[in-house]
Amino acid sequence: YICGEIRQEGENVSYSNKITFFTELIKIVEAAKSSNLTLFDKIYNILNAEKEKNKSLNAEIEKLRSELEQKKRKYKEDFKRIHDAHQDAMRVQLNEFNGLRDENNNLRYWITVLETGIELLQETTG
């Protein structure tokens, strides 16, 4: 069964990776022979060590993902706050502009009224 798994795994990788894979496998077998451990115990220990390494890497990745998500949320909030403040400032400026425009139009109206009044006075006093 294990040989079948190894063969199947070996078919899914490139030639240089196959050589590396089988070289590592030979090292494991030789190390197992020279120690009191069986081949399966040695493989189990290596896989367990890899699993523990992956656990700590996954925990680190999750921690970084969480930090990134917090920063993303904060930047979104900051951007919204800045955008809203900018929109408010633009609204104030627009209101001021509209107020000045209305005042200008009002002054123009009264200037027209005064000019018309002056013309009428000039015609009547003529």
UniProtKB/TrEMBL annotation:
Coiled-coil segments: 47-85
Keyword terms: Coiled coil
Lineage, highest ranks first: Eukaryota, Fungi, Fungi incertae sedis, Mucoromycota, Glomeromycotina
Source species: Dentiscutata erythropus
Name of the featured protein: 19996_t:CDS:1
